[in-house]
Design a protein that fits this description.
The complex is a heterodimer of chains A (231) and B (749). With 231 residues, chain A is of the alpha+beta class. Chain A has 5 helices and 15 strands. Chain A has 2 domains: 98 residues, RNA polymerase II/Efflux pump adaptor protein, barrel-sandwich hybrid domain (OB fold (Dihydrolipoamide Acetyltransferase, E2P), Beta Barrel), CATH 2.40.50; 110 residues, OB fold (Dihydrolipoamide Acetyltransferase, E2P), CATH 2.40.50.100. In chain A, the strands form 4 sheets. In chain A, strands 1-8-6-3 form a 4-stranded antiparallel sheet, with no helix packed on it. In chain A, strands 5-4-2-7 form a 4-stranded antiparallel sheet, with helices on one face. The two termini of chain A are 26 Å apart. About 2% of the residues of chain B have low confidence. Helices cover 46% and strands 15% of the residues of chain B. The longest helix of chain B has 48 residues. The radius of gyration of chain B is 30 Å and the shape is globular. Chain B folds into 5 domains: 70 residues; 273 residues, 2-enoyl-CoA Hydratase, Chain A, domain 1 (Alpha-Beta Complex); 68 residues; 42 residues, no CATH class; 229 residues, 2-enoyl-CoA Hydratase, Chain A, domain 1 (Alpha-Beta Complex). The chains are: A alpha+beta (231), B alpha/beta (749).
Amino acid sequence: MNETNLEKLMQHYKDNPYEIHKLSTSRCGIVSFEGEAALAFSAGKTKFKTYNRLIVDGPKGDYHDIPGTLLYSQMREGNLVAVCSQINGEIIDMQSELHDSWVESGTYLMSVKHTLTKEELIEKILENVLTIYNAPEPAKYSFTTEFVQRIEKEGLKRVLIRKGEEFLIKSKMKKEETIVYDGEEGIIYSVYFRPNKSVQETDLRLLGICSPDKVKDIDRIILKISLEWDI
Amino acid sequence: MLKLKQVEAVGKRLDYLHIMKGESLKSYADLNLEIAELKSKIFDYSDVEFSGKISKLEEIIFALEQNAAKTISPYDIVRLSRSPQRIRLSDILMNVFDSYQEFGGVDGFESDPAVIVAKAFVSRKVDDKLFRHPVMVIGHEKGRGAEDYSQAGSATPEGNKKVIEAGMIAAREGIPIYLFGNTPGAMHFEDKAPGASQQISDNLAFLAKVRTPVIVVNYGEGGSGGFEALGLGDYRIMLSHAWYSVISPESAAAIEFKTASPNRDQVEYCAKQLHITSKDNLDFGVVDHIINEPALGARAEDFDFFKLLKYEIIKATDMVVLNSKPKYFRSLRKYQLHQGAFEDTDGSFHLDINWQLTNHEKKRLLRLRSNKYRNLAAEYYQDDRSRWKKFTATLDGIQLSADYYIDNFLRHHYRILKMFEEGRGESLAVWKLLGQKTRSLLKNYGFMSNEKRRRNKLLSAPESIVLFEPNSSYVSPLAKKQLSVTCPNNSSAEHFDLWVPDLYRDNAGVCHHCGYHFPVEYQWYLNHVIDKASIKEFNQDIRAINPVGYEGLDERLEKARKLTGKNSSVMTFEASVQGIGLVVAMCIKDFIGGTIGAAESEKIVRAFDLAKIKKKPMLFYSHFCGGIRIFEGSVGLTAMPKCTMAAAEYMEAGGLYMVVFDHDSYAGPVASFLSCTPYKFGIKSSNIGFAGRKVIQGSTKFSISPDYHSVERALERRQILECWDRRDFRKNLANCCQTMGGSSLYYRK
């Protein structure tokens, strides 16, 4: 992606700094958007705002342990499950006619319009411009000693990685295995894994690679977003 | 400058009154204004005018002080104990002791400034001759305000650890330990090893067995477990304006009235209900002596009070030392001490008592300490057994004691045999050097094979025991509910449901996907862990009562009795697991949230005694433990030292004490007798902790992770040895009985 495309991408997000999350049921059961049961379940934990302007909050707290706003509840076989919002945003569409009715799994219920933050926007742009190197499987990953020395010496965004280079160590079930790089040659722009933390199935990203000539452009765009983005 | 000092002194007296009376001191604002005005215009007034104004202010404040002293309430005492003007440990060290040397760092460079340790000298004059006694002083330091480093006397585990470190030095040097307690409670840090509860438990176990006199002085706040970390001793003294309770009145009011910020009336009510004052505690037998303070409590400048305090702690040490000495060496001096060996005029004593104890005297000291705590709160439960039952129980006790002592006597014989065995092992090593042929010759004579067989026997169940099966046909009544549940381990987006009848009937309440343990009732364990029909309950007639007359407790107890059919929250019984007999104490939730009070502690102590005398392993299964019963005030709090003492004695006698935590186990018991053994285990998905989540966040201002109290985190910080699956409880328990600790178990002879 060249500089013009980057600018276009940025302009696109500037015009529409939103992301629409469509929510569907993950199980069958009777859906309830309001009412005593849902409110009682959420009493003291979440707040349920009026539907005129449905602002919802994501999980809060240092550990994301305080649940977000209650979106809907679902009852099946005497089991009431409350589904809370996982993101901040505004509900823009809701199938309110489904209230108190039986729905199958996968039924569309509502859409939440989420305003992107600076960090999320940078993440989005990087996803478009970087080549993501994914982990082969969930495990703990760390750089090899030689590679760590190279990063320390040259700096993270200057280390060039080539095909056939031993660069990572995979630790799983007390067994360690060296991983050889088999992707395109490039600069390691971002590192997504953390030492001593397992990479999970849901997010297998390990590294973001880009060609050496793009580094300056990406840096410039990120700086621009940091300075100009005022959301 | 003199004038300014006078005005400041008056201001200090007014502040002190305000701290005590709070908003009820209505004239505070006006008087404060007058003092401020006098201070600002101090040089405008002539000497006559100034003395007139200051005298008038002094008179008003004196009258207010007199009035306050007459109407002092339990909550006023709590407020006084928190006043920055109240005596601190550093004041005591300066004024009571001749000289002292503090151990550890200074201010911010201390590992925990809330606990001070000092080697000090206390002196007494006998016939113009001065005797200086070295002592070890350990105590809480509250500091004088927010800028101080001492965290208002709330000790961290590092601070509490100093008690053991300094106590070991004192025991080695044979000098008495003075513990000065003044804390609203311990810091609730549990994220490192040892955590708050583990350290308090270690302290209690250490103090129960330290071979030197220990004098405890409560000189301010006696806040629950934090105080107990420095609260076990041979003689417990309390200052008249100190308080001692299982919970602070504010926290009790928050629980009782279900509000985050209770008003003064609610707190006053709880302070009165909890019976926290020194007089109440003396009446309950929780403390041994009260030292009277000045009318409005002791302050740093009350030098007469320090003189009295010095006399009282010397007298207390004399009493403890004399009691440990043989009768023929102590009678006359003890009598003299009672008659008053202290002359008020010049502070000299008539008596010279050497505080160094011989080994024999130290043993007696420990025996007396054990008896003291064994008898604490002994009258605060009701024994509903008939006279005949009590008589037969006494006979059984005599027979068991005889068996125990005979067995112990025979153990000497066993020791001699063991010595021969050791000698033979040594000679085998010598023979080994002589060559392969000699060794094979010995093998032919069967020496080696015998050795091997004996070693195996030590680690296995006795041959005579038949392996029984549990009553595995029992199904939890929860299985009757025709509904499904969602496993809490699954996020809402990925949830799948578990059908409750299948969950409880086929899977013992364990999620087949992730292993999450849903709660089950204690009866499930009685049927699936214990051998069929092997349960023999004892002391079921010991009934929890309302020792401090807490309003509403009688009704709650009655309700709990009807609900559970039990007389207390702890069930004690003898049972067997895979043929191995053991004594079990089990704490159940439905009886006032599984809280421990005087009756429960008595049952636990008796269970330890039985396990010791029958040489059986002791299991404490905490199905649910909600802490010490707050409605019993300081009487309930005695469960901490009392049961820890019993546990320490049981383990010292060679028993195997195991604790298994399940569901939720919190507060005092976890910080005492549930943590004083190395053999602690947790059932999966259970929670273990000292203080609850909200309390920790409120007191430390740190947010804590949702899994802070989880059994996995407890395992991580080495609070427990292992995390068990509920379905493996029986197997693991039997395995522990055979492989872990305890040289004096009946099946290891």
